[in-house]
What we know:
This protein has helices at about 5-15, 20-25, 30-45, 60-90, 100-120, 130-140, 185-190, 200-210, 225-235, 250-255, 285-295; strands at about 50, 55-60, 95-100, 120-130, 145-150, 155-170, 180-185, 195, 220, 240-245, 255-260, 265-275. By secondary structure, the protein is of the alpha/beta class.
Amino acid sequence: MRLxxxxxxxxxxxxxxxxxxxxxxxxxxxxxxxxxxxxxxxxYIGARLFxxxxxxxxxxxxxxxxxxxxxxxxxxxEGALHELMKLLGAIEGPLAISSSTIPGEYLLPPILAxxxxxxxxxxxRVRISDSEGVCRQLMDATCELGFLGTRPDVVGLELLPFASxxxxxxxxxxxxxxxxxxxxxxxxAARPFLAREAGSGTRAAFERVTGRSLEQFNIAGYLGxxxxxxxxxxxxxxxxxxxxFAVRSELESGVLKTIDIDDVAAINRDFYVxxxxxLTISPIAESFLAFALGMPSVSMATA
Length: 303
């Protein structure tokens, strides 16, 4: 048996996803195939690469060493392919993107659809995370482009404005809230409130404008996505400050409504597309970046 490149690719996918099943989805193959490749690699090396715990896998020291060297080998392979693609003018292959919730769920899908019409040979994988997670993946080189809803203080990232957004306090349009037009911040802080996680750009924007940490609010639950927050509001679990992109259809149908927060200015924010300045991005990423930035400007004022 030889240490073949495809085994390293499978191993690195498992290492990055911390899961055999997620790696299989990413590689578009079966979980037994992924497990078999890793087992063959462990047999060849003569050491365990992962410790299998009941609910997760943990890389061993041998796994850490192989990942560091294996990822470097894969970067060399990708660099060679990128140079050839530039020489031949071919735009096809995989593109890994990381995105925070709002751009990933509401802004990117139509851009992806339009891009694919012009470049049908490109396969795009979008991983949804919070803004902090997007930055980590860019710095770890597990994605080439990142879309995020806050401007991070991270050395090494190039940030380009992509779209603008507006946040508002969203409540159920029911008997309790139907006639309410505004609420003061102290009263809001006492009501059941649905919060995003600490790395969320939505949360960061709200805390910046109000000058209050959400830890000072009556938190009914911490939810990991805008969709979960929206469904929680509809179910009566609490209220929350959300992107208007995320609730546009519910506002139009009258299921939800927005109300003002007294003495709190309009909460506006920008979305950014980012890449790692220390890495050479592929021709595919360059093409997608130019395409996304060339689309008509997106904002809640015009959406």
